[in-house]
Fold this sequence. Notes:
The structure holds two protein chains of two kinds.
Chain A: H1 13-39, H2 41-46, H3 55-74, H4 79-100, H5 105-131, E1 135-138, H6 142-167, E2 171-173, E3 185-194, E4 197-204, E5 207-210, H7 241-268, H8 271-276, H9 280-294, H10 306-328, H11 332-337, H12 339-344, H13 348-375, H14 378-386, E6 389-392
Chain B: H1 2-25, H2 39-58, H3 88-95, E1 102-107, E2 113-116, H4 117-122, E3 126-133, E4 139-148, H5 149-156, E5 164-176, E6 179-188, H6 189-192, E7 198-203, E8 206-207, E9 217-219, E10 232-238
Parallel strand pairs in B: 1-10
Antiparallel strand pairs in B: 1-2, 3-4, 4-7, 5-6, 5-10, 7-8, 7-9
Amino acid sequence: MAVMEQGVSGLDPGARNAAAGLSIVAALAGAAIVAMLLAAPAVLAAWGVDRPVDALTLSLLAAGAVFMLLGGVIAVPRLGLGGAIALIGVLFWLCGCISFKSFGWVLGAPLLLGFLGAFTGMVSHDRRAADGDATLVYRQSGLTRLTHWVWAVAMFFLLLSGLQIFNARPNLYIGQQSGFGFDNSILDIYAVNGPNGPAGQTKLFGHTFDTTGVLGMSGAADRPVFTAFPGWATIPSYRDLATGRVVHFFFAWVLVGTLAIWLINALAIGHLWRDIVLKPRDLRALPRDILDHLRLRFAHGRSYTPLQKLAYFAVFVVAFPLIIATGLTMSPNFDATLPWLVDLFGGRQTARTIHFFTMLAFVLFFVVHIVMVVLANPINELRSMITGYYRTNVRGREGEER
Amino acid sequence: MGKLILSRRRFLTGSALGVSSLVLSGCDQFDFLGQTDNQVRDVLERANSLTYHAQRLLGGQQALARTFSESEIRQPQRPNGSTDPNSAEYLALKANDFADYKFRVMGLVENELTFSLAELRNMPSQSQVTRHDCVEGWSCIAKWTGTRLGPILDQAKPKPAARFVVYHCYDSMGGGFSGPEAYYETSDLIDATHPQTILAYGLNNATLPVSNGAPIRVRIERALGYKQAKYVHTVELVDSFAKFGGGHGGYWEDHGYDWYGGI
């Protein structure tokens, strides 16, 4: 049931100029601020920005300026893509503002200009698409949309409470037990007393890395915190295993419950088979789809492209079952009920290790997921996951799978 | 489409606020969950009750914890929590190698019972090589030897009102505002009478050392380490554990940990 929509406006050179211009002006203003933070802090101090800046903040702001500039330039030939890249710049700049704890007008100006530029580019691109062959199709069912956002919230809390739980024993081992009288550890995050005072170190597969500031030791120099993952990455922000477990198990039930509802529905209406399981023709089309993605040319069809199917297949059929099963086998009572499952993973400590690395895979998926949404027309993608309606750019016979 | 755009706009505003609060959570937005009397936390904690009932319902109440071969014991059992109680009563018992130790069964039972350590050792013994899982995340395999708690409770004849077992211990923990608090634990009768639940007096073919809970430590093999009370001197059958300690059924439970401890 494709819904034709009247175009709002044709290709508007004004919109393109505005998007490109605003993004470039924001980028130049941003670059000027970064340069002054580096070379002439006195000038900024006169404008009320008088705190010393750290390397992380500078990098985030610099990346923001670079992406906004890139987005502004790309918006000339490819309006939608340019707007999306400018939006990435805006997000970097926002992270820089948060890191600097500054929300005044000096750092706010590039943020606002960049956002206007990015938004203009994306909106006018989305409207322009409406004038071509594009049609609005109902792509995401209400249940899919609801469960998507529930999972987003649940995974957020699971991640941060999970890192809190990890901090109680910041080692990962292979096997049934943890080696105290022998060494079967593959990851160890700890603090040491080095020549320059305390430092954070991470030992992974026998290689030691200095991770001071993030892993092993973090916080202000005068008030260091010796937790594996820093307080900003855990719930609660201080060491509290009991509360981490309360939060983790609550959202684990939320996740498993909504996944079960989604799975029953997806099986019943054929969503899993139609949109997520890869068929032979998807596999044949996969190399070309990968190339298309590398060139940032995205097909917007009724269903997913082969690479999207592969990603969602990996999430629903591999990663979710794996992270749930390894989580369950950490329960001693569950192991009494289904002892073969923990043995399948190679022991409780190996299961814990797999649980951790699956978490890392989910973090990677989340980053790629957000980048793809931003690059592929965030307005369209967000609309489809909120209202269900998606603007397609692939011509096809009615009802044909895309 | 006007309606649709409006809802999208409202959503974008809302999600921008939501995302920024999530980003800032980095700091301490959710620290209120650490307050044990917080109402939101109370709701989240109901998941633990759900876990308990789901595992009891679906998991098989008599299912045995996995056992291992002795060759899989690769290290001494790691001691944790109290490792050397210093109450006068315990020190006096220890000085005499626990010859005067008495194990009591009391509370909602027909027959209150008392056993010496020698009597416990002379009862039918049971050894099991099991994996000890600490709530912190580590595991350690060890061989535990003792006598089953179930038959002892049978001998004491629990009254119908008895629902929980309280394990009273010699050791104390903490030294915060309230000073040291006596360690205690509780379990349901299913865990107390489970075929692998023993009053352990032996560890890895030797006498249970003080650091691991001498003279008697309870082993509840399908639960986390904090349920395996050390230095136990009394088990008390009760209909409610609300009046013991902080009322949550154990020292660690009074400090925010879940009572079930099976996950």
